[in-house]
Automatic annotation (TrEMBL):
It comes from the Eukaryota. This is F-actin-capping protein subunit alpha. GO terms for cellular component: actin cortical patch; F-actin capping protein complex. It comes from Orbilia oligospora (Nematode-trapping fungus). Keywords: Actin capping, Actin-binding. The gene is CAP1. The keyword Cell wall biogenesis/degradation does not apply.
Length: 271
């Protein structure tokens, strides 16, 4: 594997909220200055940003918008259905600029508008930290994207939830994936990367019905994750370390402390 391929692999697997640190580390490993490393990893960073649904704010705006392959117009421009606008995006600085009007047309324009309202309500209720969502027309139907980020570097952890759904009006189905990526790195390095496939036959093809189906799917998956964490805590994690010393007796820390004090007063233990 070449150095460029190795660097691209590091970028591809960068944990949520830690892309800048990964790029800096690559620069140190390859002994490159900041400008040189940015040029070298630019294609990998662009791919990462679109796959991870990186978010940005439009100039003068307060809401986060998504950068993805589903709203990619080419030539470094993307569109946002909510604001009916397009924008240029710099993948190295993760900044948006040059906003232009970009109305959503086509046979699904009304459905997209309704989905933005109902999916938006779902996201605002269940994703409290740095959420964003987007609804975009595709060749298959309508793409619905949700991303929730939670960054806490001061506590040594970061996480991201990504939902990708394709709604097909012709078959009234909802397919896609839910991906969760959490990195915890205090006194160690633990990472959870998991994905669930979604394949739902919708009871209702209204925007409200689709949003309800999404809510049910995501709630069920969160409950599954909670159960899995509980099983790990009570099972696999406990097996990594003895609950009792090899003597099979609990340590009496008060006596141990008193014994240590006694040794100090007496000038140390006798042999």
């Amino acid at each position: 594997m070449s150095a460029d391929q190795t660097a691209a692999s590091f970028i591809e697997n960068a944990p949520p909220g830690e892309l800048a640190e990964v790029i800096n580390d690559i620069g140190s490993l390859l002994d490159l200055d900041k400008l040189s490393i940015q040029e070298k990893v630019a294609p990998a960073v662009e791919k990462y940003n679109k796959e991870q649904f990186v978010t940005t704010k439009l100039p003068g705006g307060s809401d986060l918008v998504i950068v993805s392959s589903y709203n990619d117009l080419g030539d470094g421009r993307f569109f946002d259905s909510e604001s009916s606008s397009s924008f240029a995006y710099d993948h190295s600085t993760q900044k948006a600029s040059e906003v232009q009007s970009h109305p959503i047309d086509g046979e699904h324009a009304g459905t997209i508008k309704s989905l933005l309202r109902d999916v938006g309500n779902h996201v605002k209720e269940h994703f409290p930290s740095l959420p964003a969502y987007g609804v975009y027309p595709t060749d298959e139907g309508i793409a619905i994207l949700i991303v929730g980020n939670k960054y806490s570097p001061s506590n040594y952890w970061n996480g991201r939830w990504r939902s990708t759904y394709i709604y097909k009006p012709s078959t009234s189905t909802l397919t896609g994936t839910i991906a969760v990526d959490v990195h915890y790195y205090e006194d160690g390095n633990v990472r959870l990367v998991t994905q669930k496939r979604v394949n739902e036959n919708l009871r209702s093809s209204t925007a409200s019905g689709i949003a309800t189906a999404i809510g049910n799917v995501e709630k069920k998956y969160q409950e599954e994750l909670n159960k899995a964490f509980g099983a790990l805590s009570e099972g696999a994690f406990k097996s990594l370390r003895r609950q009792l010393p090899v003597t099979r007796q609990k340590m009496d820390w008060q006596k141990a402390s008193a014994y240590k004090i006694g040794q100090d007063i007496g000038g140390g233990s006798r042999r």
